[in-house]
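Quick one:
INPUT:
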């Protein structure tokens, strides 16, 4: 039988194999991250009819080459063009990821790790990042709870939507910054109520509050009083505070610009051992202190006490400003300038003062001073209360009058003060442990001319954005960085590192074995996976989100290969037909 017949058959089979590879390439032209293959041919074997001989130096005859007849062709190798990057296809899906470089994603079916360039991922029902096609878990590294950074250890499934990751915990505000211009000609600064300044803060549970300060002019140029007057919750309800002097380490005396004398001939005090009354000049009782409960024990008695305070404040020119009136403090003994008390304490003293038969006050009680300086309490009469200052729950803000720059706040040249919320929350219903002391910095303000307009603002946090505090945050998005790190963003402005996608790199990626579903397995010739993986950027690669790697099949090349394969197949078929014709002529010799 002619050897050419078998050579033709071998050629047909080999070209069919090449056509199979080409067909598979073309079929996967739109398969995500598919890597095309190519076939190389090798001659099958050769029959030696005469071996080669060497030259004969004696006779001078040259050597003769061997005579060999080839017996066909075979597939030498089928190579996967695995290192050729496919084009990028934009999808807009943040969980579609493309690797630029030679690395592979690591995925697992729970038993074994596989490798893929297909970055079409999604988040399953329990929050794991998985392959869209197979549901296999995408593997990566978790976050070290101590350092809050990636811990590169044995790869694990990336659960990015766990319950603990869906929210970001709240945090109490611990720092604040005041900035802007305080114009000493501002009408608000020079008013009785002062200039309001609001600072929004958070407690440890994430509830938002507004601390309201008032800034007022004093009788000293370049000095202003700062008082904490209210603490409001998010609904505008006032949170009771007590001992607000702790704001700056204790109450501070600020002398009024004009001395206020409480002496009104239209009102009369009736202070006896049995009567404690404020009368008008016709004898009508305006306030009967005997009927008041000081301090109030319930809402009803508090309402009655508040009404009495309003009447008393109006009697001495503070109508509509009862709180300011009650915060005034008085010198109740002209012989001792340090003997001072607030008006509210004085009212309580009036109610509880024991008066002897001769009208004198027992030791330890307060005395009222009449215009003549008489320290005895008469059974009735008109008394004057002379103020020597204002009782503040804050401190003194000072500026350099030459430069207008900040000088100090209650003695601190650095501008630091402390809002001691944990000490001044008076409402026992509130858990004061939820409040943190807030370090306020006032050094960012200046006293410049701004056409009578102050531009003071207070913001939580320092100039570096630390200590702002925050509410409870709900996850609003997930982003994946170029190095595969996954971050969650929350509606409270925070971000959190959730993990990092690991990758695998092989010395001979072409040695990987296809597993189907766009997956590969390592082999002895590809190199092994150490179970940990590498950062994709370590070898110069990176990840892109919202895009997928397309197939690297080149249709123009495949169609060209298909033409040459077809012609090769046709030529080999002609070998068989011609050999058959020769055999036919041979058999015809018998005729």
């Amino acid at each position: 039988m002619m050897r050419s017949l078998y050579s033709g058959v071998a050629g047909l089979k080999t070209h069919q194999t090449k056509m199979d590879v080409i067909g598979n390439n073309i079929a996967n032209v739109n398969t995500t991250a598919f890597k095309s293959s190519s076939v190389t041919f090798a001659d099958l074997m050769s029959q030696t009819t005469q071996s080669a001989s060497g030259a004969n130096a004696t006779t001078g005859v040259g050597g003769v080459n061997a005579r060999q007849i080839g017996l066909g062709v075979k597939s030498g190798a089928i190579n996967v063009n695995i290192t050729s990057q496919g084009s990028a296809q934009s999808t807009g899906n943040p969980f579609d990821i493309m690797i630029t470089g030679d690395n592979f994603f690591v995925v697992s079916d729970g038993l074994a790790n596989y490798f893929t360039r297909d970055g079409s991922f999604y988040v399953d029902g329990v929050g794991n990042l998985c392959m869209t096609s197979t549901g296999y878990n995408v593997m990566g590294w978790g976050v070290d709870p101590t350092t809050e950074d990636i811990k590169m250890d044995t790869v694990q499934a990336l659960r990015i939507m766990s319950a603990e990751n869906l929210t970001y915990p709240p945090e109490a505000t611990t720092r604040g910054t005041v900035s802007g211009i305080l114009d000493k000609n501002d009408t608000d600064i020079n008013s009785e109520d002062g200039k309001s300044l609001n600072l929004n803060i958070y407690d440890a549970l994430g509830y938002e509050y507004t601390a309201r300060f008032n800034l007022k002019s004093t009788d000293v140029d370049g000095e202003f009083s700062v008082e904490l007057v209210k603490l409001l919750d998010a609904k505008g309800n006032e949170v009771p505070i007590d001992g607000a002097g702790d704001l700056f380490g204790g109450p501070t005396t600020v002398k009024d610009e004009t001395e206020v004398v409480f002496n009104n001939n239209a009102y009369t005090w009736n202070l006896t051992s049995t009567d404690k009354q404020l009368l008008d000049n016709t004898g009508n009782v305006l306030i009967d202190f005997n009927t008041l409960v000081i301090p109030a024990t319930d809402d009803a008695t508090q309402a009655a006490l508040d009404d009495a305070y309003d009447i008393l404040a109006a009697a001495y020119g503070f109508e509509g400003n009862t709180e300011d009136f009650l915060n005034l403090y008085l010198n109740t003994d002209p012989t001792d300038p340090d003997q001072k008390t607030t008006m509210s304490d004085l009212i309580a003293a009036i109610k509880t003062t024991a008066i002897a038969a001769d009208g004198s006050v027992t030791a330890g009680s307060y005395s009222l001073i009449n215009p003549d300086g008489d320290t005895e309490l008469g059974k009735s009469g008109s008394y004057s209360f002379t103020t020597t200052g204002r009782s503040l729950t804050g401190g003194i803000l000072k500026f350099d009058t030459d430069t207008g720059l900040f000088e100090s706040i209650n003695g601190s040249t650095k501008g630091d003060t402390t809002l001691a919320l944990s000490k001044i929350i008076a409402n026992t219903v509130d858990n004061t442990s939820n409040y943190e002391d807030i370090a306020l910095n006032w050094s960012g303000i200046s006293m410049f001319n701004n056409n009578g307009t102050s531009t003071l603002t207070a913001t939580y946090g320092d100039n570096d954005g630390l200590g702002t505090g925050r509410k409870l945050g709900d996850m609003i998005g997930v982003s994946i960085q170029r190095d595969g790190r996954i971050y969650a963003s929350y509606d409270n402005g925070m971000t959190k590192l959730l993990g990092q996608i690991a990758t695998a790199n092989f010395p001979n990626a072409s040695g990987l074995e296809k597993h189907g579903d766009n997956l590969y397995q390592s082999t002895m010739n590809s190199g092994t996976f150490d179970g940990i993986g590498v950062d994709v950027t370590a070898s110069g690669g990176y990840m892109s989100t919202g895009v997928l790697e397309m197939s690297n099949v080149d249709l123009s090349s495949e169609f060209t290969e298909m033409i040459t394969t077809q012609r090769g197949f046709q030529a080999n078929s002609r070998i068989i037909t011609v050999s058959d014709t020769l055999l036919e002529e041979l058999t015809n010799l018998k005729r």
